UniProtKB/TrEMBL annotation:
The chain crosses the membrane at residues 35-56, 68-92, 104-125, 145-171, 191-208, 214-233, 254-277, 297-317, 350-368, 374-395, 407-430, 436-454. Keywords: Amino-acid transport, Cell membrane, Cell projection, Disulfide bond, Membrane, Phosphoprotein, Transmembrane, Transmembrane helix, Transport. Coiled coil: none annotated. One of its GO terms (biological process) is regulation of programmed cell death. This is Cystine/glutamate transporter.
Length: 488
């Protein structure tokens, strides 16, 4: 009965030491270290190389106004992302908790910035990023059946909701091992897709084919960087699962360096291939750049490219759904989110409530904006907190010089990265004040929430009673408990 199940679950909280004595190590509920170097590299590449390289070229070219300048933007975004990834390699080896930016802000700048990062991530930044990757998946699945006409947007969103997001959520609720193995397979698949684009593009380049330049546009250049950085986004995600990485002091820095070097080289080569086979006007008119490229360069494989791109987007979704809920899990464990989200399924060993929370928010975001607006909307807050995190790293270095740092990035790299990120964030307010202003306003809404619910609970006690009531019944329904041993 439900009452008996509740008593059993309650005992887990009342006598955890006694319960652990009666269990073997394998039976104790906690997140296990199951991510080796290859899965770690696959998670970074698999998340970074998603829809971005197939969507962002249009946004980069549109806002840079020049083929040459757009290629420079891609290269600089790769270098900047590498600088940031090296900073996160230091942070990931200095602090042993999962949670990425949330954990690092909590340790370096305090609880309010950490809570705002958590608030921004799970109220709109993460749902927005999942939404535009999911939309890219739906577009590349549906559009080939309607070519040369445009695919119905309602059908694209229906496929997005029912196939990509729902299936990925179910997969990550089911098994950590299965999700990580699928991620490795999908990473090799998406790299093969990039090779299929690069090879014919360079064959045409050798034959002397060129595209015509556009006019230079500096006013919207920060938005071009946002689109490029969006395509490189995801290198922070491995730090979300630090407690599940085997030998993190070695594997986190190594995985980050190998992944980002590979991605930067491939991205520049893919864009050269795009501009070799397509004119700028053709690229700007295309909502599915890889499909247009395949129709021009690989007519025999025109149906294969959309499938590979869809699988690439699926890999990004799977990696994101695997890693980002761990941030919510850690935030709830620290008392910054309802405790139900710090619980783990008793048999599957997955953070089930944290994974499930994303799905309804993604559905709401899917019907709330156009894809390039979603990129700018989420990028402002995302990059602001990335810059704040590396600033916190520099502050922590100054305040605690003796703190152990198994991997240490040169200070000049951290300073350059932080300054450039703040500069781009500031310019974006000028270039796109509407979307960045909305993002900033939503971020600031977290301040009253923090003071009302986290720092000191100031709402009527009835709110706390209702929250506890629903948490108890959700715990019974989902069969989840707090982790029973410390993993950091």
């Amino acid at each position: 009965s439900l009452d008996c199940r509740f008593v059993l679950i309650l005992k887990r909280f009342l006598t955890p030491k006694q319960m652990r004595k009666e269990k073997t190590e394998d039976e104790v509920v906690h997140l296990r270290r199951e991510i080796g170097l290859l899965p770690a590299v696959s998670f970074i590449i698999g998340i970074v190389v998603g829809s971005g390289i197939f969507i962002a070229p249009k946004g980069v070219l549109m806002n840079s106004g020049s083929v040459g300048l757009s290629l420079l933007v891609w290269a600089l975004c790769g270098v900047l992302s590498m600088f940031g990834a090296l900073c996160f390699a230091e942070l990931g080896t200095s602090f042993t908790k999962s949670g990425s930016q949330y954990t690092y802000l909590l340790e370096t700048l305090g609880p309010l910035p950490a809570f705002l990062r958590l608030w921004v991530t799970f109220i709109f930044t993460r749902p927005a990023s999942v939404s535009y990757v999911s939309l890219a998946f739906g577009r590349y699945v549906v559009e080939p059946f309607f070519a040369p006409c445009a695919a119905p947007i309602v059908l694209i969103k229906l496929v997005t909701v029912c196939v990509s997001a729902a299936f990925v959520v179910a997969l990550n609720c089911w098994s950590v091992t299965t999700a990580s193995r699928i991620q490795v397979t999908l990473t090799f698949t998406k790299m093969f897709a990039l090779v299929l684009i690069i090879v014919p593009g360079f064959m045409a380049l050798v034959k002397g084919e060129r595209t015509k330049p556009l006019s230079l546009t500096l006013a919207t250049l920060p938005i071009a960087f946002y689109n490029g950085l969006y395509a490189y986004g995801g290198w922070t995600n491995l730090n979300c699962i630090t407690e599940e990485v085997i030998n993190p002091n070695r594997n986190i820095p190594l995985a980050i360096i190998l992944s980002m070097v590979t991605v930067t080289i491939f991205y520049v080569l893919v864009n050269v291939a795009y501009y070799t086979m397509m004119t700028p006007s053709e690229l700007l008119m295309s909502d599915a750049v890889a499909v247009t490229f395949a129709n021009r360069a690989l007519p025999g494989l025109a149906l294969v490219i959309p499938i590979l791109v869809a699988l690439s987007c699926f890999g990004t979704l799977n990696g994101g759904y695997f890693t980002s809920p761990r941030t919510l899990f850690v935030g709830a464990r620290e008392g910054h989110w309802p405790s139900i989200f710090s619980m783990i399924h008793i048999r599957r060993r997955t953070p089930l409530p944290a994974v499930l929370l994303q799905y309804p928010l993604v559905i709401l975001m899917l019907f709330g904006g156009e894809i390039y607006q979603l990129i700018t909307f989420s990028s402002f807050a995302g990059w602001f907190f990335v810059a704040l995190t590396t600033l916190g790293m520099l502050v922590h270095r100054y305040r605690f010089p003796l703190h152990p740092r198994p991997f240490k990035v040169p200070a000049v790299i951290a300073v350059i990265f932080t300054v450039v990120c703040f500069f781009i964030v500031g310019l974006s307010l000028y270039s796109d004040p509407w979307n960045t202003g909305r993002s900033c306003a939503l971020m600031l809404t977290g301040i009253p929430v923090y003071y009302l619910t986290v720092q000191r609970f100031r709402l009527p006690n009835r709110f706390k009673y209702i929250s506890d009531y629903f948490s108890m019944h959700l715990q019974l329904l989902l069969e989840v408990v707090q982790q029973e041993i410390q993993t950091y």
